[in-house]
Design a protein that fits this description.
The complex is a heterotrimer.
Chain A (H helix, E strand, L loop, with lengths): L4 H32 L3 E3 L20 H7 L4 E3 L6 E3 L2 E6 L5 E6 L13 H13 L11 E8 L2 E6 L6 H6 L9 H6 L7 H6 L7 E7 L3 E6 L12 E5 L4 H9 L5 E2 L15 E16 L8 H11 L5 H5 L3 E3 L21 H11 L2 E7 L4 H16 L2 E7 L17 E5 L7 H8 L14 H10 L5 H17 L3 E14 L2 E2 L18 E2 L2
Parallel strand pairs in A: 1-10, 14-15, 14-16
Antiparallel strand pairs in A: 2-3, 4-5, 5-7, 6-7, 8-9, 9-10, 11-17, 12-16, 12-17, 13-17, 18-19
Helix pairs in contact in A: 8-10, 13-14
Chain B lengths: L10 H32 L34 H37 L1 H16 L2 H12 L3 H28 L2 H8 L4 H37 L11 H7 L9 H29 L2
Helix pairs in contact in B: 1-2, 1-9, 2-3, 2-5, 2-7, 2-9, 3-5, 4-5, 5-7, 7-8, 7-9, 8-9
Chain C lengths: L5 E12 L2 E13 L4 E5 L6 H8 L11 E8 L2 E2 L5 H10 L1 E4 L3 H4 L6 H6 L6 H10 L5 H6 L7 H14 L4 E5 L7 H18 L2 E5 L3 H7 L2 E6 L2 E7 H6 L4 H8 L50 E2 L6 E2 L31 E13 L11 E13 L3 E5 L6 H9 L6 E6 L5 E3 L13 H6 L9 H14 L16 H13 L5 E5 L7 H18 L2 E6 L2 H7 L2 E6 L2 E7 L10 H9 L3 H6 L1
Parallel strand pairs in C: 3-8, 3-9, 6-7, 7-8, 15-19, 15-20, 17-18, 18-19
Antiparallel strand pairs in C: 1-2, 1-4, 4-5, 9-10, 10-12, 11-12, 13-14, 13-16, 20-21
Classes of the chains: A alpha+beta, B mainly alpha, C alpha/beta.
């Protein structure tokens, strides 16, 4: 079909007029906006939320949202590992360390209007303990959970557990769920289905929208018992690709990139962005396979000289990491006698030259870029002294099946962070013979015995000295090589402040209740 | 000029005719492929830098001393791209050649035997062809463990059926031709019939299929290395180099871009060359 | 004189084939008047079909554009260099073509009515009328049918109807009857003649068969190697050819009255190896009377001495040649006719069915009978020709005898476990990438292990077949069609089989080649004492090559008789129809 020329002109003119009118309308709207503006924080999640049920999922990104909708009895104070009260205003611990008595805050209401009572706490905690749910193990040591009156909760332990309060304050610690919601939606599944996508807690935010794989919205709880949050609304789009997150942040479509920002780019940020970095519990460490070339103390010494983190930590992380001082995160335990690696490269070179071919295979626990950055650098460092190293990413789940595998890599590069900020958790998770994350199943009975003793001590200094000693033994035996403690780095639009990043939480878990614009 | 009954035109004229048929794009492709092969053979001898050693600051942009700049740990990117071209090119050629030989022989036997054997083999080929071969190969590598050899094995296992199909169809077509009927009537025994009377006739089609397939193979291998299923670090694979530094695209563009550009040229030239060869062998 | 419809002047065409450029047509000039039928004859590769394509502006573009020089004026329109739209409209209204393969020219997904609809402007009556005039009496069934439901002859007639409907000024018929049997061919030739007379359509009729040309054409143009050798009225050229090539064409012709007791009068293949050049005469390597200047000076067309046409030969004044035809070698075949030798091939009550295309997936395929209880017996030393229209089952019979397919029922016994077959198309029956010697030697492989011995015997066989033994190292592509056919015969007889099967071996050959092939087969089978089964639709060839003729109709033997008794008044209806449909140049000349 051929258009008549005058027709074309007419159409074009109408089109231009249309564009003008739409533009005018948008300009007017833009002028009018501030008057109605809500304060909205836009923060992406790279990993989708599996379940919003606080008892039933080991969420990493999503746990931050869960902690803003639900509350537990105690929490880590924002920005520290110090434990402070939350729903419990104070508590007492019996002298035998077995009985914990919590006194609840007054005037707390769930999002559905139900008042918080001690019975509600007992109900939620028993659901956690007895429900056979993913996180049930966290209250496995609780023999009895009871409510002597409406405002008091008593928990009796089976055996002393010095880290019990850390377990309660953990990001994945037990939360209090509305008893009404629990009974109403219990389709003989402990309401796990309904709670997977809905939430009725006591926290400063309510779950307003749950669109799996797409976006989540939290709205401010107007009747919150505590301090009123700054933001009215938190919008959480799911953006799996970090590159896309960065582009959207630069374009102003997001306010924050909470984690995984490339360290190399942090020194090249545009002016409208800034970095908030706080120490975290992220320790990169190498776990060593028994009967690897590193068993030979001479080789190990040479290799330690080459991979000595002090040689490369600044190159890879800039100011955003520090040397690990012990087998525990620096925040968890400040050792009296920090480990130091040898640094004589020439001696190492000579040692390897004498010993002949040394090959080391590294497995990377994750595809995340930081693992590759570290391993690339380690490979180059090792090449310097004549050790041929290779590295490959392990398939998902493979890191947990290395025990007894003759083809397992000689070393596993992983992040050694326990679920609570307590040396007990670290040792029992990674180092003792039966530790679930003792990747290669190495065993050092002498050190395990020290950990057993430390667990019974209540004096913090005495206890930490024992943990330090045990940790030192694991390192000297060549089970683990702690490398660097990397900071929790959040990149955000300029002016965002009071992020409330907790070292014991997964990286980038901003406290939505404290974060605000500094104006 | 009328070609004499037994006359052959002299060879320079033939060469000229050949080039004219290949066309300028095909010629560019063939020259490109030759260059790539030379680069792949020489690889590290083309640069003074060690592709695996830290030889400078990290993140240096392209310069006179480091043509492609340096990567995240201060290795020379040009040296690494050369090694990447070498491993990608040689690996894809070896998978293609292996699949070509295996597939042709299976197709030859299937097509020449006919009957139940043909039916069975073709159903097996169908089965392989309906599967998404790259995906399955990925899964296989995930099971076998990463590494160049494993990638090659996994891809070859899932790559030959295509050639078996091409070969078998050509063989069936030839089998019905009078010259093969004549050879059968002359009492040529089976294996000899296959190798002398059938296979040579299928070779042009197979060569065309293979040359046009090289770029698919390069992409499949790159996807593997992109997903971390290729060779382990520190070996330089183009796909992996791009994948691992993709997040620095906006700041250190040369680290992901230049390996990707190299990859593009590998595919581009092999496709051009394949098209050129097809126009010669098939006379489209 | 009326203005010609078509004037071709100094037409030259260069085509690229497999990467090499060939001059396919070289300075061709001629004209065709309205209502005139011009036959274009010549061996395959002479450029006949290219001429037809060039006139329609349809030259194949094989990788590179064809180079065309000279001029083709069709009803005042210049074809050479015209834009594609103009050529398309010329093909719609001025020039139509009837090709050799009608299936390729019809759309398999449309009924005949739909396909004719466009040319007829939707006039239903016109569609039916033109089908009827093309000799299709049940026009309504034809119009309803899809092309694959029609026979080859019906398809050809549909194409003629389609061409007629456009009332073109010029019709190009490119071997339209080659694939048809003689009966259908005769009907089609009649339709073509009527078309020229009634519609004043000019017709270019391309054929390799002189008898067909004689049956249809007013004038004849003889092409050789892309050049015009001679042009003139058919009668005159046939009586006194002025070019050695046309002389050999007309001398070698045979029909139902040719003497079958001796070899056909043909030149021995006088092909000499050597280079032809643009400057000399294209026929010089075949010519018996060529002199040195023939290979250096190109003969120009000039007025013929003995007729009103044109000829391109330096030596045409010496025609007719006293030594032509090759009378010296025409001694009668020797040897007694064998009638009671051991039986080499016996078929008893042989049945064969083929599944027809299914109409619907769920129906079981209908079986169409191809052979219905055939009995046939050939003794050693005897030659039997099986003659029949297409679809009569004669090819099926041959394949069963060769063991290439199995009969459904009946008994087949063959003295030779591996009878040899000579196929219709000699070029495609040779493997292109193996040398002639290798392919011939293949038959000795299990028994003769010495390579030198094999080579010696291949050389012998080549000589038997009339080929230079040095050709054993050549590839098929370096041989002419005739040489290929001889190589195939050499392969068949290198280890003399008991039974030789020939599947229409001459149907696509020009006359001298066909005559030479018939002579060769006759000679070898007598010399080697073979039994021979010769399948053909050409009654004249059958008569020459066979002792006995078997007429097959609809899968059954209807008549069997001695070859000499072909013209007997007691022949049955089927045979008589075949005899009458045989076009004959001599009959035309006698009229």
């Amino acid at each position: 079909m051929q258009a008549n020329p005058s027709d074309v002109v007419g159409r074009a003119a109408r089109f231009r007029l249309g564009v003008f009118l739409v533009g005018l309308l948008m300009a007017l709207l833009a002028l009018a906006m501030p008057a109605y503006a809500e304060e909205i924080l836009r923060i992406p999640y790279a990993i989708d939320i599996g379940t919003f049920d606080p008892d039933n999922g080991f969420e990493v990104d999503g746990i931050g949202a869960v902690n803003n909708v639900y509350e537990g009895l105690v929490e880590y104070a924002p920005g520290s590992t110090q434990i402070v009260g939350l729903l419990a205003k104070r508590w007492e611990i019996s002298n035998d360390g077995l009985s914990y008595t919590f006194h609840l805050e007054d005037g707390v209401k769930f999002h559905d209007g139900t008042a918080l009572t001690a019975q509600a706490v007992v109900g939620s905690f028993k659901r956690r303990r007895d429900g056979g749910l993913v996180l049930s193990y966290m209250l496995g040591n609780a023999a009895d959970i009871s409510a002597p009156d409406d405002a008091t909760v008593v928990i009796r332990l089976k055996q002393p557990q010095p880290s019990f309060l850390d377990a309660l304050a953990s990001a994945w610690g037990p939360k209090v769920i509305s008893p009404v919601a629990l009974t109403e939606h219990d389709k003989s599944d402990k309401a796990t289905n309904w709670l997977g996508e809905h939430a009725v807690g006591t926290g400063p935010f309510k779950l307003a929208e749950f669109k799996r794989g797409e976006r989540y919205v939290l709205e401010r709880n107007a009747d919150y018992w505590g301090e009123r949050p700054y933001f009215d609304k938190i919008e959480i789009p799911v953006v799996p690709d970090i590159g896309q997150q960065i582009l959207k942040l630069k374009a102003g479509e997001l306010d924050v990139v909470p984690t995984n920002f490339s360290f190399a780019q942090l020194s090249h940020l545009p002016a409208e962005l800034e970095v908030t970095a706080v120490p975290s519990m992220t320790q990169y460490a190498l776990f060593i396979k028994p009967r690897s070339p590193l068993d030979n103390p001479e080789i190990r010494r040479a290799i330690l000289s080459a991979i000595n983190p002090s040689l490369w930590v600044k190159d890879v992380f800039g100011p955003y990491a520090e040397l690990s001082k012990s087998a525990y995160q620096n925040l968890m335990l400040d050792p009296a006698d920090p480990i130091e690696y040898p640094s004589d490269i020439d001696a190492a070179k000579a040692a390897i030259a004498k010993l002949g071919d040394v090959n080391v295979v590294m497995g990377l626990h994750s595809t995340k870029a930081t693992y590759a950055r570290i391993s690339d650098r380690l490979i180059v460092q090792l090449a310097q002294i004549g050790v041929k190293a290779t590295a490959h990413v392990l398939p998902p789940g493979a890191a947990f099946a290395l025990k007894g595998d003759p083809n397992a890599p000689d070393a596993l590069l992983t992040i050694a962070s326990p679920d609570a900020a307590h040396p007990e958790n670290q040792a029992r998770a990674f180092f003792t013979k039966d530790a679930p994350l003792n990747f290669y199943g190495s065993s050092l009975p002498g050190a395990d015995a020290i950990v057993d003793v430390a667990g019974t001590k209540t004096d913090v200094a005495e206890r930490n000295a024992l943990y330090e000693k045990a940790g030192r033994l694991y390192v000297d035996a060549g089970h683990v090589i702690p490398l660097v403690d990397v900071k929790d780095v959040v990149v955000h639009a300029k002016g965002l402040t009071d992020l409330g990043l907790r070292p014991a939480f997964p990286l980038g878990n901003i406290d939505f209740a404290t974060v605000r614009w500094a104006r | 000029m009328i070609r004499g009954m037994n006359g052959q035109t002299n060879s320079p004229a033939r060469l000229y005719e050949g080039l004219r048929l290949i066309g300028w794009s095909g010629s560019v492709g063939i020259v490109g492929v030759l260059l790539i092969t030379i680069v792949a053979m020489l690889a590290t001898r083309l640069t003074p830098h060690d592709p695996y050693a830290r030889i400078a600051e990290a993140y240096l942009p392209p310069s006179e001393t480091h043509w492609f700049g340096t990567d995240e740990v201060g290795r020379d990117l040009f040296a690494r791209v050369l090694v990447g071209v070498q491993s990608t090119w040689l690996a894809s050629l070896s998978v293609i050649i292996f699949s070509l030989v295996l597939g042709s022989l299976i197709g030859l036997i299937s097509g020449a035997t006919g009957g139940k054997v043909d039916f069975l083999v073709q159903r097996i080929v169908d089965l392989f062809l309906v599967l998404p071969s790259t995906m399955i190969a990925l899964a296989a590598v995930a099971v076998l463990g990463p590494g160049l050899l494993n990638s090659i094995i996994a891809l070859a296992i899932f790559w030959w059926p295509w050639y078996a199909r091409v070969s078998r169809d050509e063989i069936r077509r030839l089998y019905a031709r009078p010259h093969v009927e004549a050879a059968r009537a002359a009492g040529v025994p089976g294996p000899r019939l296959m190798l002398r009377y059938l296979l040579p006739g299928a070779v042009p089609s197979l060569i065309i299929a293979a040359t046009l397939d090289v770029s698919n193979m390069i992409m499949a291998l790159s996807v593997m290395s992109f997903l971390g299923l290729g060779q382990p670090a520190p070996s330089a694979e183009l796909g992996a180099m791009t994948a691992r530094s993709l997040d620095s695209l906006t700041v250190f563009w040369w680290i992901p871009m230049l390996p990707a550009v190299a990859l593009f040229f590998l595919c581009f030239f092999s496709n051009l060359a394949g098209d050129g060869l097809r126009s010669v062998l098939k006379g489209t | 004189m009326v203005d010609p419809v078509l004037t071709v002047a100094r037409l030259g065409v260069v085509l690229a084939r497999n990467g090499e450029r060939h001059r396919v047509l070289d300075e061709i000039s001629f004209a065709v008047a309205p209502g005139e039928i011009l036959a274009v004859v010549g061996e395959s590769g002479a450029g006949k079909s290219t001429l037809g394509a060039a006139i329609q502006g349809l030259l194949p573009n094989d990788g590179s554009a064809p180079e065309v020089s000279g001029s083709i004026r069709l009803a005042g329109l210049e074809i050479v260099g015209s834009p594609p739209q103009l050529l398309r409209s010329a093909r719609r209204s001025l020039v139509r073509a009837v090709p050799q393969d009608p299936m390729g020219a019809l759309n398999p997904t449309m009924t005949i009515r739909r396909q004719l609809h466009e040319s007829a402007d939707g006039d239903e009556a016109l569609i039916l009328d033109s089908l009827r005039r093309a000799g299709l009496s049940d026009e309504r069934r034809i119009a309803r049918a899809h092309p694959h439901r029609l026979s080859g002859g019906e398809r050809q007639r549909v194409l003629i109807a389609m061409a007629m409907m456009a009332r073109p000024k010029l019709l190009i018929a490119d071997e339209p009857t080659t694939a048809l049997d003689v009966t259908t061919q005769a009907q089609l030739l009649q339709i073509v003649r009527d078309l020229a007379r009634e519609e004043q359509t000019a017709i270019i009729y391309i054929t390799h068969d002189l008898n067909v040309a004689a049956a249809v054409a007013d004038r004849v143009m003889v092409l050789f190697g892309g050049r015009m050798a001679e042009i003139g009225t058919l009668r005159q050229v046939a009586r006194s050819p002025q070019h050695p090539y046309s002389a050999s064409l007309f001398a070698a012709r045979y029909d139902l009255n040719t003497d079958r007791s001796r070899p056909l009068p043909t030149q021995r293949a006088a092909f000499r190896h050597g280079e032809t050049s643009d400057r000399g005469c294209g026929y010089v390597l075949h010519c018996q009377i060529a002199r040195t200047d023939c290979s250096s000076i190109r003969p120009r067309e000039r007025r013929a001495r003995a007729h009103s046409g044109l000829v391109a030969c330096h030596r045409s004044d010496e025609m007719p040649l006293p030594t032509l035809p090759v009378a010296a070698s025409r001694e009668a075949w020797t040897g007694e006719e064998v009638t009671d030798g051991p039986v080499a091939l016996q078929l008893m009550d042989v049945h064969k069915h083929f599944p027809a295309n299914r109409q619907r997936v769920w129906e079981s395929p209908r079986l169409i009978p191809a052979l219905r209880g055939v009995n046939l017996s050939i003794s050693l030393g005897q030659s039997v020709a099986v003659v029949g229209e297409s679809g009569s089952g004669k090819s099926t019979l041959l394949k069963i005898a060769a063991g290439l397919i199995a009969a459904d029922s009946g008994r087949v016994s063959c003295l030779d476990p591996r009878p040899q077959v000579i196929f219709q198309d000699p070029v495609s029956a040779l493997t292109p990438w193996l040398s002639i010697g290798d392919q011939i030697g293949e038959r000795m492989r299990p028994r003769v292990t010495s390579a030198a011995e094999r080579r010696r015997r291949v050389g012998e066989a080549l000589q038997h077949a009339g080929l230079d033994p040095s050709l054993m190292h050549a590839l098929p592509s370096e041989l002419s069609v005739g040489q290929c056919q001889r190589a195939i015969v050499a392969r068949a007889v290198v280890v003399p089989p008991k039974l030789l099967l020939c599947d229409e071996p001459i149907s696509a050959m020009d006359v001298p080649l066909a005559a030479a092939t018939l002579n060769l087969l006759n000679d070898l089978r007598r010399r080697l004492g073979l039994a021979m089964l010769f399948v053909t639709h050409d009654l004249a060839a059958a008569r020459i090559v066979a002792d006995r003729i078997v007429v097959l109709n609809k899968g059954a033997v209807v008549e069997e008789f001695e070859a000499d008794m072909l013209q007997s008044p007691f022949r049955g209806a089927v045979t008589r129809a075949l005899i009458e449909a045989c076009p004959s140049l001599d009959a035309m000349l006698a009229r």
